[in-house]
């Protein structure tokens, strides 16, 4: 690889010390590198990273921060189809493979073209109010449909390919990708799935029942979740959240249609370890 681009989280890299070290190292080895700071943007076509600023011919995007920063960057630049490598400056990371102590070794592998590329599926969610679309976004980890306001369970009606599946009285519903299976879904009792698989997981959040489990669907299935009425037939308010970041408000009767995105994220792997080996290390 010869042309690099860095997306950096200034909250994790104070004064851009690590960012500047990487730029200097790459340029010392005769490589090109540009930098963009990830900053929250409230309106427009992107959330944190402007994909149009990434030069044509860029071969690798280095994301400095943690899993959250990588999720944000992936959603913004996915359609550029450039492989990404996360450098973890935070705590435990499943996505950001490289830690502070391994940065130079990782860069050497990239320069020597010693890497693998994993394709990670994403989800798109389209929120409908009647026959009108009120919001749409994309997620690498998960789309969460939850209640808003007082602490009480809400009814969620679930459909698969327009066929009624079931209803949950719960705090919310998580629709996750295999990548997201080690995130919020896992903490709610969902299974761990190999990240390069292609399937969709449905996991209820604190369901008011004794026998509710996660359900796994093939990648081509289209899942619809409708926010039901509350107790005493009152209108409920909720939120559709994408990767724990952007949110779209919903009310009773609104529905979100979730399906596999047309684009996938390319994640660089340097350690050549299997998913089982990585999982064992994380669990030790």
From TrEMBL:
GO cellular component assignments: cytoplasm
UniProt main location, coarse: cytoplasm
Catalytic reaction list: NAD(+) + ATP = ADP + NADP(+) + H(+)
Record's keyword terms, sorted: ATP-binding, Cytoplasm, Kinase, NAD, NADP, Nucleotide-binding, Transferase
Enzyme type, top EC level: transferase
GO biological process: NAD+ metabolic process; NADP+ biosynthetic process
Keyword NAD: yes
Gene Ontology molecular function terms on file: ATP binding; metal ion binding; NAD binding; NAD+ kinase activity
Annotated NAD(+) binding sites: 67-68, 141-142, 152, 171, 182-187, 206
Record-given protein name: NAD kinase
Lineage: Bacteria, Bacillati, Bacillota, Clostridia, Lachnospirales
Gene: nadK
């Amino acid at each position: 690889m010869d042309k690099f681009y860095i997306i950096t989280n200034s909250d994790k890299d104070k004064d851009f010390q690590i960012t500047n070290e990487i730029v200097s190292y790459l340029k010392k080895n005769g490589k090109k590198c540009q930098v963009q700071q990830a900053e929250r943007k409230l309106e427009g076509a992107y959330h944190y990273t402007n994909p149009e600023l990434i030069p044509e011919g860029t071969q690798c995007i280095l994301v400095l921060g943690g899993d959250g920063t990588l999720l944000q960057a992936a959603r913004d630049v996915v359609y550029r189809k450039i492989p990404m490598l996360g450098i973890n400056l935070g705590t435990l990371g499943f996505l950001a493979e490289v830690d502070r102590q391994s940065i130079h070794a990782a860069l050497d592998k990239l320069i020597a073209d010693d890497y693998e590329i994993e394709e990670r599926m994403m989800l798109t969610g389209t929120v409908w109010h009647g026959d009108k679309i009120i919001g749409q976004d994309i997620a690498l980890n998960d789309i969460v449909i939850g209640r808003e306001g007082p602490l009480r369970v809400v009814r969620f009606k679930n459909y698969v390919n327009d066929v009624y599946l079931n209803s949950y009285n719960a705090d919310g519903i998580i629709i996750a990708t295999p990548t997201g299976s080690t995130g919020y879904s896992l903490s709610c009792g969902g299974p761990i799935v190999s990240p390069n698989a292609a399937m969709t997981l449905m996991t209820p959040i604190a369901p008011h029942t004794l026998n509710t489990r996660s359900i796994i669907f093939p990648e081509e299935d289209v899942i619809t979740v409708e926010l039901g009425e509350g107790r005493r037939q009152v209108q409920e308010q909720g939120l559709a959240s994408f990767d724990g970041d952007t949110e779209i408000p919903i009310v009773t009767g609104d529905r979100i249609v979730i399906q596999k995105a047309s684009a996938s994220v390319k994640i660089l792997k340097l350690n050549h370890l299997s998913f089982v080996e990585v999982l064992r290390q994380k669990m030790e």
